[in-house]
Specification:
heterotrimer, A mainly alpha (294), B alpha/beta (446), C mainly alpha (315), A: 294 residues, MetI-like fold, 2 domains, two-stranded antiparallel sheet, 12 helices, C: 315 residues, mainly alpha, 14 helices, 0% strand, MetI-like (chain A)
Amino acid sequence: MRRSAVRRNLTAHAFFLPFLAVFAIGVVAPLVYAVNLSLYQERMIGGTSFVGLDNYAKALEDTLFHVGLGRVALFFAIQVPLMLGLALLAALVIDSGRLRAPGVFRIGIFVPYAVPGVVAALMWGYIYGDRFGLAGEVEDLFGVDLPDFLASGWMLASIGNIVTWSYVGYNMLIFYAALRAIPDELYEAAEMDGAGSIRKAWSIKLPALRPALLLATIFSVIGTFQLFNEPSVLQALAPAVITTNYTPNMYAFSLAFEGRQFNYSAAIAVMLGLVTVVVAYVVQLVTARRERML
Amino acid sequence: MRSSMKHALTTATAAALALALAACGGGSGGGKSDDGPKVDPAAVQGALDKPATITFWSWVPNIEKTVALFEKKYPNINVEVVNVGQSKDQYTKLTTAMKAGNGAPDVAQIEYFALPQFALTKSLVNLADYGVGSLKDKFAASAWSQVNVAGGIYGVPQDTGPMAMFYRKDILDKLGAAAPKTWEEFAALAKKVHEADPSSYVTYVDPGDPGTATSFMWDFGGKPFKVEGTTDVTVNLKDDAGAKAYADTMGPLIKDKLIDVTGSWNDEWWKSMAAGKYPIWITGAWAPAVLEKNIPQSKGQWSVAPMPGGASAENGGSSVAVTTQAKNKEASVAFAQWLNSDPEAVKSLNSEVGLFPATKVLLDDPGFRSAEVPFFPGSKPNEVFADMSKAVRPDWQYLPFQVYANSVFKDTVGQSLQGGGDLGQGLAAWQERIKTYGKEQGFTIK
Amino acid sequence: MSAETTEAQPSAAPVPGPRKRPVRPLSRKPRRRRGKSTALTVAMGLMLAYALVPLVWLTISATKSNQTLFDSPGLWFGDGFHLFENIHDVFTYDDGIYLRWFGNTLLYSVVGAGGAAMIATMGGYALAKYDFVGRKFLFALVLGAISIPATALAVPTYLLFSEMGIVNTPWAVLLPTLASPFGLYLMQVYAKDAVPDAMLEAARIDGAGELRIFFTISLRLLAPGFVTVLLFTLVATWNNYFLPLIVLNDPDLFPLTVGLHQWNSMAQGGSGAGAIPILPLVLTGSLLAIVPLVVAFLFLQRFWESGLSAGGVKQ
């Protein structure tokens, strides 16, 4: 019995080993490397020197970094609830069984998820054009005055739209799947108690959705804080609106590749990772006081 | 191994040389006697007889055609042309490859503005060591001065972009206007154009295009960036005469909404160009090929005139450089040299690839000057371009970290262009970012 | 170990899905027979239009020449129908580089996503079904890693890989994609319920080895979860842009996303001399890049829907 337990333990490790290996190379090693990089400073004149936590101290005072961080935080506060709300609504409607041809809606709304982010941004960029794009045509056709979607006041909303378009269907499916997992007996019991549809939604559907909501929110936190593809594609269309520090991730990229500040860029990346982890953790605390991911 | 020893020695002497030059305040062009080759030119030429493979990074469409001529002439050499991305994207890759210590090509296309940055970070071979200095007289002065960095020669000029004024003759004719000869006339025309058609502007500025902005400063006689030796940098965007003239000429027109502020080179912009929204386009002499390829329907509508004010500046243009990671430096240098100075090659670069030449071989050639260009029927645009090339003001310098400086242009000057044209403020902000960065990188900034 | 799972009969036919709640396939008829609502259908129709109009625009644009793109309305056809011509151009431009990109994307996706799903399945199974040393710590580590922005690690990844000498090789793209912390998480949750402990015990008593149990019994039960992870890693690798952009130099190794973006920057200038009119290629190429994924999703719908409902959202 003991021998077999040891063997089982070994087998478990063997099953887990491949993951551990790729995880170590693909995630842990670059992370350690980034932390190490962030402790040095390399200058065009004067070479490389160890600077300890100087780069982090600098990041704490760097308004360019903070502005980008504030922008994605704002994005998170507005776009994510909108997108998840929309997805939730769609999931509830499809689950209600009152739609004609629900399968068409389920797949149709999900399809944009299969469009690569870069392609989605390219496409919407053309559509937004107010002179010759689709937006411009709508203006000409209906004689209405649409806002300039690529101007600084609208840009964040325009990016939000691209992200929403891409992911609303994906989130909808996650919610829908959670709703489908509710056993019929629960509804039957509720109906026997004389519960109306609002009551059922509140006391049966919402609790069932909580883990899915948490999962979707966590993924949105991660996606939002590393926003990069959409703004960097739109930069070609509105160069002065999307600055080098428009999002923290763009800032890290620009520091490293345009400014050759690999060390400071690594510090920014690590800080960004920390912020993401903290926000994800807070979200987890708030959304799931009782349930836990583990 | 022997050649790498030799190289180590040559870079050491080159460094000593640069210091010596800096000590005596060596400006552009470098000394004469000190510029002598460290590698026997015969060895450079001889390298072409031995089998070798050269990787060449370039984003210029159709450059394979000229390279094919080279391979035909030197069958032992196999050149692999790789397009890793446009300008900025390529520099990103080159920077990371240099940082990593491997993965860089043997030969790379590098625009003049980016050359000092790569030269100073020891990414490029000093071609003077290989006797490329003897090519000096083959190139236009404005092109040659741009490959000179800190007393070395870090690229062979490939093409240039002396600025000229492209204008829609059909539109100006309708307005009863002629191509402006001075900047005052230009301002007057701006009013006329916009009054005649409120949706039309005399021209545009791109808040994300630092290259054109610096070219204007250059054209107005400015020298906002000065580099002495390898570490002393002066940045003067606030008070420099050229920078001021640029702000005073363009600023008010932007403020009065007589010049449009827009991103360029995108779909929207091409549509505007095709529709005649901007009757004037002030840009480099490489533009005809681009116009012809992208909006062929406007053939015959464009004409070319000298710059308002008569002087000119370079806009764009690139050189071909050999990286320090090159495996066969001699063959790489010989290739870069042939590609950009052999008469057969430069003709091909011009006629088959569509580049505007950097060599006098073509610029002074009566046949080139008087050539008919089908896109501009009945005119001789090359004549204007060649004259503009001569009118380029001398002694302009780029920063040793211009790639970075250009990347934050949109954050600073771009903001004030977008926000109504208070260019003084934008230029001051740009200067601030540049200075901070320069100091962080260990330069002595004034 | 929960009470429910021990109730399962070892001899009973394997029941896929969590034990607690048998999950109905998503595509089955809705459970309640309420009246269909036209108003709701119309409202959802708006949302459907929102999702599909940009794709309609892309499809229509793919039928236009460079010239017509500039002077015809976006949502209607222009002069002439150039779709087949454009497709032909996409496949032949620059010696058919698009097909190479397509092949690369296929390689990165199939090997990367397939490998990631397999590795995650084995790892998740180990976490769920064995109590081994360091289990809790490892799981916490992986969960923490889900929150690390992958793109923020791109620069260190590049430098590290260049020291390993694998920059500008397919490995530089494949290695990081093989690690899917989310896939592992999903599989751990899924495996907990999909593979009854009692069944494992029974197999062990019959004398089956752990490996044999995994490959002959467990893997079959894990199939829906596996397909779900496969599809999500497939989308992730198919859409991967940032990492290949940085770790690859040679266009012959590019995946479609990076290649298409390069075409786009060629079409849109970026630097004057490079501007060439290949906008139709960008649009048609984009359209062609989307089709395989959509088809894959449609065909595997049955699997991933049950995987999703059972694994990703389990309470």
